[in-house]
Amino acid sequence: MKKKCAIIGTDARLPFLQETLDNLLDVKIFPTMIWTEELNAAINDFQPNIIFLPIPPLQIESSFVLPESCLLLFVGKKNKQIEQEIQNSQVHAFYYLEDEQWIWENANLTAEGFINDFYRSEKESIYNKKFIITGYGRVGKRLAFALHHLGAEVIISVRSDHQLFEAKSYGYQIEQLEHAVKNQGGLSTYLINTIPNRWLSPSDTTRFKKVYDLASNPGCLLESANSIPTNYIHSTSLPGLYFPKDAGYLIAKAVQTQLALLEGEK
After folding, report:
1. How far apart are CA 128 and CA 154, in angstroms?
2. How far is it, in rounded angstroms, from Cα 236 to Cα 233?
3. Cα(22)–Cα(5) distance, rounded to whole angstroms?
4. pLDDT, tens digit (0-9, with 9 covering 90-100), for 117-127
5. Rounded CA separation 230/126 (Å)
6. CB atoms < 10 A from the CB of 56, how many?
7. How far is CA 266 from the centre of its chain?
8. Fold entry, domain 4-100+244-265
9. How far apart are CA 52 and CA 43, in angstroms?
10. pLDDT by residue (tens digit) across 176-203?
11. Check: CATH 3.40.50.300 for 129-235?
12. Distance, CA of 90 to CA of 20 (rounded, Å)
């Protein structure tokens, strides 16, 4: 008999995750982002051995308690209730957003998704445009590579000297983060933020032609949503938006790898 897997969430990637896992598991999708008494009852009725939680943390409206049948929990972003239940239940938790293979391959889709977003928004070529990328993690690196090869002028702006000179070694221009904003003023530069915290003043967005914020919620703006500038776009979850099939298969690959590893430990 196949093990049962419950997938919770409304993401467009999840049906493709289910499609891949159907060969291995008895899979059921619960299309919600809120943990309620009704969802808790439905999960307990299904008695899954594996539960897959969505990338954004579930909104918890009822006591978050895993069924005793659950042996493996796939976790996206954490919250206190989920972490507490993992500790209480001693279930094996796999944080798929921390899986290096998934991170890099998802960064490729994010970079390609941004390019699609730019074309749709600007209706202009990337060639010969000027982009400042704040942050030089996986997404920043893949973006820089893609934009550079499309003929853009790429400037990497971070606080870390290590990352600055790494970027310089690949032929990109560099700028300390604290100088990146005040040195702009020609309204010909696009800012792409990948730094996952608030650091940019809404008034400083006027120094750029447009600001594309790829960081997860709440994004990079210092002020609240009431003061969002007209040239600011918060572009999150680009892989799921533009490439749900490919992105779903990437998540499935991470799940399959973890399942195989656990089977090998038995």
Report:
1. 10
2. 9
3. 9
4. 999 999 999 99
5. 21
6. 17
7. 32
8. Rossmann fold (3.40.50)
9. 12
10. 998 888 877 667 899 999 999 999 999 8
11. no
12. 27
